[in-house]
Amino acid sequence: MAMIASKCPDIRVTVVDLNEQRIADWNSDNLPVYEPGLQSIVEHTRGKNLFFSTNIDHHIQEADIIFISVNTPTKDYGSGAGQAADLRFVESCARRIAEAGGGDKIVVEKSTVPVRTAQMVNEILRGAENGFNYQVISNPEFLAEGTAMADLENPDRVLIGGETTEAGNAAVAKVVSVYAQWVNKERILTTNLWSSELSKLTANAFLAQRISSINAISALCEETEADVDEVARAIGMDSRIGPKFLKSSIGFGGSCFQKDILNLTYLCRHFGLPEVAGYWDQVISMNEYQKERFVQRMLDAMHNTISGKQIAILGFAFKKDTNDARESPAISICKRLLEEKGSLKVYDPQVTKDSILSSLGITDESSLERLSFCHSAEDACAGTHAIAILTEWDEFKEIDYQKVLTTMLRPAHIFDGRNLLDLEKLKEIGYRAFGIGKV
Ligand code: UDX
């Protein structure tokens, strides 16, 4: 919304939320989200044509276009628990819009939703019978965290789906005209509603599948002395495959990939397509396997026990340049290391201690006693038997590992879960160094 405000000075954008604290944060100098470039764009537009408010009904009534941008987490209760998307927030937005009235509106699904959610939103809006016309549009968001500003400013494509009726086409054209103020028209795709909804789930499933595919190969590399980065480079130069999203790692995290694949497989089963669901299930299974494999490799290298040993955890975010730890692979890896009775010294430049504790969700005293938090990577490494790099923060490349080694216990291990460092150099200076998909 900040990007729309910045690129379209003639459009007044108001972001509304029930959560007063969140709105207060958006109106303050401490934005609730860490995203490079966001602060400056908010500062330039806030109070001019970008506003944050809790006065929900008033702004619904005034708006011509309403973007529904609420959470659609995986359902954790009742039918479809653990798989289906929980649409209660989308549904309550639709009800609130219908109740507030105020005139004809275009209602845009920005949240990632299962195919045919627009039908539900439509039924609620039209069922209100309040005399106003509503057009539901699907406009999924493809930005990635950490690069959100660049992705929004220069998107690969903007996807806008609508009903294939005269009113539907007019609504699509209106939303197109917003993006066309800064995005080249050739990059704005219009489709029917259902294609647009399904494309978002499919894009995320394909991206996650590439990571699971290269991670599957990484296991084979470790057995055969092939190097996964070299394999990725070799296959990525095939223009049909392409070089992106082939970085082998401890597995994908983030709020989207797993959730969207679960959502996709739930839909497949719902529509009687168990073989299709089974195919996509494997992408998640491989991701789980990769995390466990990393833990096993640590155990194997450290004489099958880490009980009583100190381990530095460098990075907890699901990727660099974000303070987001949702579904971070670091969560299950740290939990497993605690289960194995290791002691963890955690450092992440952006994820807070509270966020790490709530992501881990551990309550037993014994585990909590073995968990501590540090203010720098060097502090985290001092006195440990091993370093595990779980997020590819640039600053971890700049560490003076020779100096760090003098503060560690011997033999000193380093497990690079992001293939960030030069393993040969580390070995030369005295570490036992391990990467992913390399010997
Ligand atoms: C993703 C999609 O990229 C984006 O289009 C969609 O709108 C939201 O979901 P995001 O989750 O922010 O974006 O980050 P992304 O860069 O896709 O990374 C997801 C996870 O995959 C991270 O944990 C990352 O470390 C991992 N990853 C990514 C790899 O392990 N290897 C890669 O080559 C790329």
* N-C termini distance: 46 Å
The total of helices stands at 18
Strand content: 5-15%
Strands of the largest sheet, in order across it?
Answer: 10-9-8-11-12-13
Main pleated sheet: 6 strands, parallel
Bound molecules: uridine-5'-diphosphate-xylopyranose
Give Rg in angstroms. Answer: 24 Å
Helix content: 40-55%
Q: What general form does the structure show?
A: globular
> Which structural class matches the secondary elements?
alpha/beta
Q: Could you name the ranges where pLDDT drops below 50 across 5 or more consecutive residues?
A: none
What's the number of extended β-strand segments? 13
- Mean pLDDT across the residues is 96
Task: Describe the secondary-structure layout.
Elements: H1 2-7, E1 13-16, H2 20-26, H3 38-45, E2 50-53, H4 56-62, E3 65-68, H5 88-100, E4 105-109, H6 117-127, E5 134-138, H7 148-153, E6 158-162, H8 166-179, E7 188-192, H9 193-224, H10 228-236, H11 257-270, H12 274-301, E8 310-314, H13 329-339, E9 343-347, H14 353-360, H15 365-369, E10 371-373, H16 377-381, E11 386-389, H17 401-405, E12 413-416, H18 423-429, E13 432-434
Parallel strand pairs: 1-2, 3-4, 4-5, 6-7, 8-9, 8-11, 9-10, 11-12, 12-13
Helix pairs in contact: 5-6, 9-11, 9-12, 11-12, 12-13
The chain binds uridine-5'-diphosphate-xylopyranose.
Uridine-5'-diphosphate-xylopyranose (UDX) binds at residues 141-145, 204, 207, 211, 245-247, 249, 252-254, 256-257, 318-319.
